[in-house]
Structures are given as C-alpha cells and as structure tokens.
Amino acid sequence: MRKRIGALLLLLSVSLSCLVSCAREREVTYYQYFDTVITLSATSLAREDFETVTAGAEKEISDYHKLFDIYHEYAGVNNLCTVNKARGTGVPVKIDRRLFDFLARGKELYELTGGHMNIMMGAVTSLWNDARANADEGAAALPTEQALAEAKKHISIESLVLDEEGLTAYIDDPKASLDVGAFGKGYAAERVSEYVKRSGVTNGFVLNFGGNLRVIGCREDGEPFTSGIHDPNADALGSYVLLLPLNDNSLVTSGSYFRYFEIDGKRYHHLIDPETAKPSDRFVSVSVWGKDSGLCDALSTALFVMDRAEGEALIESLAGYEAVWITADGQVFKTPDLTPV
C-alpha cells in the first residue's frame, strides 16, 4: 500500500507540473481528505488573496469529506455513514441540503449511464475493499462467487428513498449500502470550484483532487492549461498518451493501475462492473474531458465498465464532453471531436 501511495504522489506531482508549468506562483496540498492528495494552485493571486481563498476552499473540502464519509460519523453531522447505519430500520435520516442534492444527482446519473454508475453498489464494493485490505496484510483471497451473487441482490438504486420536502434519505433494504467512490471526488471538486469562483477568482486556478482536475479559467497569457493523460502501460510515470487543453473545464481519469491487489499474477482493481460484480477488464484507463467535474467523474467510471461502442454513444449524446479509452495492449481510442495539444 505504501508503495502505491508513493507512486500516486509522484504521478500527481508530474501531472500537476505538466498542468501549471513554471507559471505557478501559489500552491497548497492537503493529505487528510477523501483518502487522496488534493492540491490547489493559482498562477496570479497575491499570497494574502490565495490564503484567504484556499482557507475557505479547505472548509468546503472538509465539509464534503465529512458528508460523503461512509466509514465514520462526525458530531453534529448526518452523513452517508449515518444513512447506511439506518438502513432497514424504517427511520429516514434528516440530511444536509448539500448531501441531499448529491444523492439526488447520483440517482439521475444512474439513469443517464444505464446503471453503470451506481452509488448503491456498497454491498458489492465492500467485499472487494475487504479483499484489497486483506491482501495488503498478506492474506490475499477473492470474494466467493456465493458472496458476490448474494451482494448483487442488494444494489438496487430504488432502495435509496429520498424525500426532498423533508430533506431525508433512507435505504429500505437492510443489506444495501451507499458507496459513492464512483463520483464523490469529482462532485466535491465541482462544488469547491464554485466556491472559488464566488470568491472572485475567474482565472488561473487549478483544483487537483487526486488526479481529478478542475481548472478555473486559463493561464495568465490567455492560453489554456495543458494536462497529460498518463500512459498506464509505460514504465515511466511521466509518459503520456495525449496532451489535452484545459480552459475552465475538467479532466477525470478512472484507471486500474493504483487501487488493486494481485493473486497469482492477476490484478484485481477497484472499478467494479455492476453486471458481473467483478472488476472490469475492458480497459486499463478511461478519461473524460468536459465542463462539470462531477459528471466527468461519473462518466469515466461508467465508461470504464461499458462496452466502448455503448460508451461512445453515451458521450456523443452529451454536448461538450469527450473521452479517451486505453486498453491493456496499448491501444488508444478517443472521441472524434477531442483535439489534443
């Protein structure tokens, strides 16, 4: 695990360097949120302004981290852990408007992606999360077919009942649970970017949520930022298959090359296909380029487990969104309208 975290830090460092280049003037990094590395940087803000904006942004990040946490509860906060604990009790949980909007968006994106992005996958993903944790402790073992088949019975999006008038959430299946790793970071990044914009920042600001990039505006010289899509089949972390322009938009990648464990030389990663309840082996990396970081995050997750033709049809139905697929044998496919640098 420590080796993978170290590699992640190096990759994020390389990617961010590629993104903001030598024009970067201010930067702050957080390690305690969303189980990832979050970096905020700006190319044109005075130090005092940067510190003021990032202090408020960190408060937003912290709030969403607490709201989306499925493992811990916090004093005075009803979060996803609270909702999961109340499953099957018959008692809806009163939640923050921000959490309600997030869950409602999750249900919308389930429909948009044909169920390939499902925030109610907790019964299945918990089995794989446990397997990965056990592997890190030297006790690698796959979830049994019986356990996966049973868990798959409890991933219905309909089991999540939302009441907008009362601002409540309830899971009516006692064996179902929420797991929002499929788009939580991207959604939070978009909300934090909105806060930064409300603070008066209109240009030259970069939010990097563990490799999920959200850029506000462009560089000081009026040119777009540039970010590379990592080549997952290359030995060197600084290798890219494409360089893409970013100008007030996002780039999010879902890949199989960091959160995984191996048994008998086969890799088992964290991107689970709802249809099979197992890690998808269609691709090693899928990236989505577009305006909304939350939508990009959800789409990259969905496209990773979808057939490419089906994924292309979904992306083509969404104006302003593009995608890149990378296969295990090194093939790179992209949507026709995506123009590399």
How does CATH name the architecture of the domain at 2-54 and 204-334? Roll
Return the average pLDDT rounded to an integer: 92
Main sheet strand line-up = 1-2-6-7-10-15-16-17
In whole angstroms, how far apart are the ends? 34 Å
- Briefly, what CATH class of the domain at 2-54 and 204-334? Alpha Beta
Radius of gyration from the alpha-carbon trace, in angstroms: 20 Å
Quickly count the helices. 9
Structural class: alpha+beta
- The fraction of residues assigned to DSSP E strands is 15-25%
Oligomeric status: single chain
Q: Which outline best applies?
A: globular
Predict the CATH topology of the domain at 2-54 and 204-334. T-fold
Task: Let me know the number of strands.
Answer: 17
CATH superfamily of the domain at 2-54 and 204-334: ApbE-like domains
What ranges have pLDDT less than 50 throughout 5 or more consecutive residues? 1-17
Order of helices and strands: HEEHHEHHHEEHEEEEEEEEEEHHEE
Helix content: 25-40%
Major sheet: 8 strands, antiparallel
Account of the 3D structure:
- The chain is an alpha+beta fold.
- It has a domain at 2-54 and 204-334: T-fold (Roll), CATH 3.10.520.10.
- Helix content is 36%, strand content 22%.
- It is built from nine helices and 17 strands.
- The protein has helices at 2-20, 47-68, 80-85, 97-112, 122-136, 145-152, 184-198, 293-305, 308-316, and strands at 26-30, 38-42, 93-94, 160-163, 168-171, 205-209, 212-216, 225-230, 240-246, 250-255, 260-263, 266-269, 272-273, 278-279, 285-290, 322-326, 332-334.
- The strands form five sheets. An eight-stranded antiparallel sheet has the order 1-2-6-7-10-15-16-17, with helices on both faces. Strands 3-5-4 form a three-stranded antiparallel sheet. It has a two-stranded antiparallel ribbon with strand order 8-9.
- Helix 2 (47-68) packs antiparallel against helix 7 (184-198), helix 7 packs antiparallel against helix 8 and helix 8 (293-305) runs antiparallel to helix 9.
- The longest helix is centred in the N-terminal third of the chain and has 22 residues, at 47-68.
- It is globular.
